[in-house]
């Protein structure tokens, strides 16, 4: 069995356009990409899906095809991704997608780009049904309203028997040759349908129904847009840890957290030697997953000779902003036998908070000795550790 998925994204979104939305709904930004891409990410995770076809608006086809190529490479999607132009009606768009893979596979999932929340498990249930011999399988959920057939004059013609009714969704899975034949049959008869299973029904085939997902709504009307914000992913909590050491010796006047320490020993350094801001910079880079201070600001580069460490912190903060990292809390410790840092505690905390542009309540500063042990105990140098907690929104 070889399965591909066709994602139809060539609609006009007229119902939302009427309500004032200027972007077609399938291209609204969502989780850092156009909305249709959410379905691509989900279907690419289904191991039995071997390729994706995107059906895109004909008028701007080249532009959207380039976007698909770009997103696929950015997300490292290794599946083949084909792009084809859509047609006038949904069924025309689907058929264009099916024809593009007619020679490539035997089973297809047809999915609306306007249903971004369909899950990978649902796709698997549908593929299972076709694997077990059904020519068509669709997801459905029970209807909770009473459904009536109404005449053009606005009178009830009939109340339908609710226990027999269900609302159907996509993806819908099919034996590909059967679906193409059903499309051709319906087109020859001039039938307009709203889903692909209807084609199989019209051509006399059986359609298996599997449980759908309540959350798998189709973004259709303005109220549905709220689902996009309600379903925004929770930010990712992360922790970064940093550590730095400087030797005492002829070099730079001591600064801790950007605060000059009067009468403190000088430190040997390429930069200004602010051990605390270096540990902090490494902790920020840790949250970002972007290596360490030496990679970004090498001590062999003249540009960083005697550079103020606050500048380095600021550069990493810019990277943090780009990655939508929200700082939560910073815990800092300096380990040194000399100098005594308690008189500077508040100034250091306040200056670090200022540099990080966060409230001073979210910064904690501590200083300790190592009881005369080791290189700090022997007053040969100083070390600092920093722990940053943050939320990644990007
Ligand atoms: N000619 C068309 C019409 C629809 N679709 C796609 O089919 C799915 C379901 O259609 P619908 O929700 O009706 O989207 P639109 O047709 O864009 O919406 P509207 O009816 O409000 O214009 C959507 O992903 C839509 O992009 C398509 O590819 N080609
Ligand atoms: C295919 C579908 O999503 C199943 O519910 C639906 O029929 C699409 O209908 P639309 O008129 O294109 O919105």
Automatic annotation (TrEMBL):
<dbReference type="InterPro" id="IPR018294">
    <property type="entry name" value="ISPD_synthase_CS"/>
</dbReference>
<comment type="function">
    <text>Bifunctional enzyme that catalyzes the formation of 4-diphosphocytidyl-2-C-methyl-D-erythritol from CTP and 2-C-methyl-D-erythritol 4-phosphate (MEP) (IspD), and catalyzes the conversion of 4-diphosphocytidyl-2-C-methyl-D-erythritol 2-phosphate (CDP-ME2P) to 2-C-methyl-D-erythritol 2,4-cyclodiphosphate (ME-CPP) with a corresponding release of cytidine 5-monophosphate (CMP) (IspF).</text>
</comment>
<keyword id="KW-0511">Multifunctional enzyme</keyword>
<feature type="site" description="Transition state stabilizer">
    <location>
        <position position="369"/>
    </location>
</feature>
<comment type="pathway">
    <text>Isoprenoid biosynthesis; isopentenyl diphosphate biosynthesis via DXP pathway; isopentenyl diphosphate from 1-deoxy-D-xylulose 5-phosphate: step 2/6.</text>
</comment>
<comment type="similarity">
    <text>In the N-terminal section; belongs to the IspD/TarI cytidylyltransferase family. IspD subfamily.</text>
</comment>
<feature type="domain" description="2-C-methyl-D-erythritol 2,4-cyclodiphosphate synthase">
    <location>
        <begin position="239"/>
        <end position="389"/>
    </location>
</feature>
<dbReference type="GO" id="GO:0050518">
    <property type="term" value="F:2-C-methyl-D-erythritol 4-phosphate cytidylyltransferase activity"/>
</dbReference>
<keyword id="KW-0548">Nucleotidyltransferase</keyword>
<feature type="binding site">
    <location>
        <position position="278"/>
    </location>
    <ligand>
        <name>a divalent metal cation</name>
    </ligand>
</feature>
<protein>
    <recommendedName>
        <fullName>Bifunctional enzyme IspD/IspF</fullName>
        <ecNumber>2.7.7.60</ecNumber>
        <ecNumber>4.6.1.12</ecNumber>
    </recommendedName>
</protein>
<keyword id="KW-0808">Transferase</keyword>
<dbReference type="GO" id="GO:0019288">
    <property type="term" value="P:isopentenyl diphosphate biosynthetic process, methylerythritol 4-phosphate pathway"/>
</dbReference>
<dbReference type="InterPro" id="IPR034683">
    <property type="entry name" value="IspD/TarI"/>
</dbReference>
<dbReference type="GO" id="GO:0008685">
    <property type="term" value="F:2-C-methyl-D-erythritol 2,4-cyclodiphosphate synthase activity"/>
</dbReference>
<dbReference type="GO" id="GO:0016114">
    <property type="term" value="P:terpenoid biosynthetic process"/>
</dbReference>
<comment type="pathway">
    <text>Isoprenoid biosynthesis; isopentenyl diphosphate biosynthesis via DXP pathway; isopentenyl diphosphate from 1-deoxy-D-xylulose 5-phosphate: step 4/6.</text>
</comment>
<feature type="binding site">
    <location>
        <position position="246"/>
    </location>
    <ligand>
        <name>a divalent metal cation</name>
    </ligand>
</feature>
<feature type="region of interest" description="2-C-methyl-D-erythritol 4-phosphate cytidylyltransferase">
    <location>
        <begin position="1"/>
        <end position="237"/>
    </location>
</feature>
<dbReference type="InterPro" id="IPR026596">
    <property type="entry name" value="IspD/F"/>
</dbReference>
<keyword id="KW-0456">Lyase</keyword>
<feature type="site" description="Transition state stabilizer">
    <location>
        <position position="270"/>
    </location>
</feature>
<feature type="site" description="Positions MEP for the nucleophilic attack">
    <location>
        <position position="162"/>
    </location>
</feature>
<feature type="binding site">
    <location>
        <begin position="297"/>
        <end position="301"/>
    </location>
    <ligand>
        <name>4-CDP-2-C-methyl-D-erythritol 2-phosphate</name>
    </ligand>
</feature>
<dbReference type="InterPro" id="IPR036571">
    <property type="entry name" value="MECDP_synthase_sf"/>
</dbReference>
<keyword id="KW-0414">Isoprene biosynthesis</keyword>
<dbReference type="InterPro" id="IPR003526">
    <property type="entry name" value="MECDP_synthase"/>
</dbReference>
<keyword id="KW-0479">Metal-binding</keyword>
<feature type="binding site">
    <location>
        <begin position="244"/>
        <end position="246"/>
    </location>
    <ligand>
        <name>4-CDP-2-C-methyl-D-erythritol 2-phosphate</name>
    </ligand>
</feature>
<feature type="binding site">
    <location>
        <begin position="292"/>
        <end position="294"/>
    </location>
    <ligand>
        <name>4-CDP-2-C-methyl-D-erythritol 2-phosphate</name>
    </ligand>
</feature>
<feature type="site" description="Transition state stabilizer">
    <location>
        <position position="15"/>
    </location>
</feature>
<dbReference type="InterPro" id="IPR020555">
    <property type="entry name" value="MECDP_synthase_CS"/>
</dbReference>
<feature type="site" description="Positions MEP for the nucleophilic attack">
    <location>
        <position position="218"/>
    </location>
</feature>
<dbReference type="InterPro" id="IPR029044">
    <property type="entry name" value="Nucleotide-diphossugar_trans"/>
</dbReference>
<feature type="binding site">
    <location>
        <begin position="270"/>
        <end position="271"/>
    </location>
    <ligand>
        <name>4-CDP-2-C-methyl-D-erythritol 2-phosphate</name>
    </ligand>
</feature>
<feature type="binding site">
    <location>
        <begin position="368"/>
        <end position="371"/>
    </location>
    <ligand>
        <name>4-CDP-2-C-methyl-D-erythritol 2-phosphate</name>
    </ligand>
</feature>
<feature type="binding site">
    <location>
        <position position="244"/>
    </location>
    <ligand>
        <name>a divalent metal cation</name>
    </ligand>
</feature>
<feature type="binding site">
    <location>
        <position position="375"/>
    </location>
    <ligand>
        <name>4-CDP-2-C-methyl-D-erythritol 2-phosphate</name>
    </ligand>
</feature>
<dbReference type="GO" id="GO:0046872">
    <property type="term" value="F:metal ion binding"/>
</dbReference>
<feature type="site" description="Transition state stabilizer">
    <location>
        <position position="25"/>
    </location>
</feature>
<dbReference type="InterPro" id="IPR001228">
    <property type="entry name" value="IspD"/>
</dbReference>
<dbReference type="Pfam" id="PF01128">
    <property type="entry name" value="IspD"/>
</dbReference>
């Amino acid at each position: 069995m070889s399965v591909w998925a066709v994602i139809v994204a060539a609609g006009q979104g007229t119902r939302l356009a009427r309500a004032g939305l200027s972007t077609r709904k399938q291209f609204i930004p969502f989780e850092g990409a156009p909305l249709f891409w959410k379905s691509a990410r989900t279907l690419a995770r289904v191991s039995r899906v071997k390729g994706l076809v995107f059906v895109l608006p004909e008028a701007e086809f080249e532009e959207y095809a380039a976007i698909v190529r770009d997103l696929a490479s950015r997300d490292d999607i290794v599946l083949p991704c084909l792009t084809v132009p859509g047609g006038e009606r949904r069924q025309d768009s689907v058929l264009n997608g099916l024809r593009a893979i007619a020679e490539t596979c035997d089973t297809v999932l047809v999915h609306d780009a306007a249903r971004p929340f369909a899950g990978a498990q649902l796709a698997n249930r549908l593929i299972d049904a076709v694997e077990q011999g059904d020519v068509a399988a669709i997801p459905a959920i029970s209807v909770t309203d009473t459904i009536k057939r109404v005449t053009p004059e606005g009178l009830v013609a009939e109340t339908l028997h609710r226990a027999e009714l269900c609302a159907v969704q996509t993806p819908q899975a099919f034996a590909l040759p059967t679906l193409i034949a059903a499309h051709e049959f319906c087109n020859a008869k001039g039938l307009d349908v709203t889903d692909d299973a209807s084609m199989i029904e019209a051509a006399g085939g059986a359609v298996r129904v599997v449980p759908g997902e309540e959350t798998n709504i189709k973004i259709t009307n303005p109220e549905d847009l709220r689902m996009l914000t309600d379903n925004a992913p929770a930010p990712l909590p992360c922790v970064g840890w940093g550590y730095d050491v400087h030797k005492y010796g002829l070099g730079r006047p001591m600064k801790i957290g950007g605060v000059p320490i009067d009468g403190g020993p000088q430190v040997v350094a390429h930069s200004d030697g602010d051990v605390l801001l270096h540990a902090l910079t490494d902790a920020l880079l840790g949250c970002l997953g972007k290596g360490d201070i030496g990679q970004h600001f090498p001590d062999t580069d003249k540009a960083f000779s005697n550079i103020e460490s606050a500048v380095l912190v600021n550069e990493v903060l810019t990277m943090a902003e780009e990655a939508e990292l929200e700082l939560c809390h910073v815990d800092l410790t300096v380990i040194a036998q000399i100098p005594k840092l308690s008189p500077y505690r508040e100034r250091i905390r306040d200056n670090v908070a200022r540099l990080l542009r966060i409230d001073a309540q979210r910064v904690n500063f501590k200083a300790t000795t190592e009881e005369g042990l080791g290189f700090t105990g022997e007053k040969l140098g100083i070390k600092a550790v920093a722990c940053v907690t943050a939320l990644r929104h990007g």
